[in-house]
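Chain entry —
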Amino acid sequence: MDIQGQIFGLTCSMAACAGGAWWFVRRFSQARHLLDTPTSKIRSAAQGYAEFYGVLHPQGEEQQRGPLTNTPCLWWRYKIEEEQRSSDNKGSSWRTVESGSSEALLQLDDSTGSCLIDPRGAQVRPLTREVWRGSERHPLGQAKTGWSAFFSGSGQYRYTEERLHAGQPLYAIGDFRSSGGGRQGLDLASAKGAVIREWKSDFSGLLQRFDSDRNGQLDEQEWNRVHLAATLEAEDRHRQQSTQPAQHHLAKPSEARPFILSCAGEDELVRSFYWQAAGAVVLCVLGAVATAWLLGVNRF
């Protein structure tokens, strides 16, 4: 083996070892997060990282539509790939030419309440997934199934569309926050500061309200009245917000924790993560053995 081949082989084996180790840590950590987070009810869940089981419900009459099939749904993700043939026409590969996913809020209901989910940044594992082929960049009409798919199963483009539909079960884990319903405490200092900043953005209006001597400036006494009025305004806004019905939201955590939306349950997800972690261990060990062999047999 020449020196270039040795360097290439060593680089590949070390990359396999490092990649396998990283993937093992990632998947094993995700599995542990899922197992260590208890399932909560929406109405009584603690604020922070939480896990829920529920059913997807539409928020109104208007629904999303899959961009490739025009099928009504609550969430979608699609991909269009183009087949690239090798120069000798003996092999081919697929290149993604277009992709996207829905960012519309999802509504998850359980027996105690509703929660709005922001799917951005989530690992979404939907129940519905359709894959078919065609000769046009964008497919025409519904995905072909059955005999029609068999007879038209060729073409230089491959389409994939995944969807979430109303009535489907959903497992969700992420950062849970509630507002209204008297659940939020009042941080008076920050609330007052927000009111003052809002008033300062219209400084002429602020002067009109509190500049009693009309000299175009606010002296110390006038600023004291501003702070007193801002305190009363912040308290009044908090009282009004507390009377509103509680609203619950789930979104991507700020920490490096899993944010998963899946039609499969926790047990299936954890089993999948453990299998992937096991595969990563095998890859890491093979990479380490290959690296040791190359270093031992081929002296640089």
